[in-house]
Amino acid sequence: MHGGHCINIGIFGIFGPFFCACPDGATGSRCEINIDDCVDNRCANGAPCVDQVGSYSCFCPTGFIGTFCEDTVSPCIAQPCQNGGSCVEEDGLAICSCLDGYVGSRCELDEDDCIPNPCSNGGSCLDDINEFTCNCIAGYVGSRCELDENDCIPNPCSNGGSCLDDINEFTCNCIAGFTGSLCNVNIDDCLNKPCKGDAQCIDGINGYTCECPLDRWGTKCQVLKSPCQPNPCMHGGYCTKNGTRGVFFCACPDGATGSRCEINIDDCVDNRCANGATCVDQ
What we know:
282 residues, Laminin, two-stranded antiparallel ribbon, disulfide bond, EGF-type_Asp/Asn_hydroxyl_site, EGF_Ca-bd_CS, repeat
């Protein structure tokens, strides 16, 4: 048994007694007895010995390896640290050193970078691996929503208006002559009809121009013109205003006639020049 070798010791090798040559670890006339190789076993660290034929093996408890369970198994051999964490053995225990952004005894947890909330001015935080993103409310910008967005860039105010920034809004201060939220409306300076008489008002920027009729003058056509200014009468005639609508009368000097004294009377018609003298009218 147990792999023993049978040797025939009879005469001529025919039916006779035999002898069993037993392998190491077996004994008995037929090698039927398995010698207990665990009697003097070298199993260490409390490992039980398992007898075999001519040898034995050690059944190592957790934490030990080797033929005789003589070597300690490193707790880091199983790579217990997750997410790139490094393992260091301390007093037989696996200690994990985690990469930035991870926590936990095995680096199994994503560290919440949004606690406490790093986003200012009401911004919401979105966690990521060792970083975060801030979603800012309207009116704020910056990696942490820390900046008031300048609503005046570019300047939304028209026609030279100045912009005053506020939170998600702005105010336009308009120059004289313009109005509206964007200073885009030209104020109608003719609205109150400042021109007198039948004068036409022409609107401008923060002002107006009055186009006066012939009988008026002044910035608002407020002055009635005298028909005698400038003097319409010729040859030294004297102008007299007649009524209020530009009517005048010319009092002509001797030697002139016509509505404007424009006709020089020929005084040589009845001249008294004697002895063939030539008369020169004046």
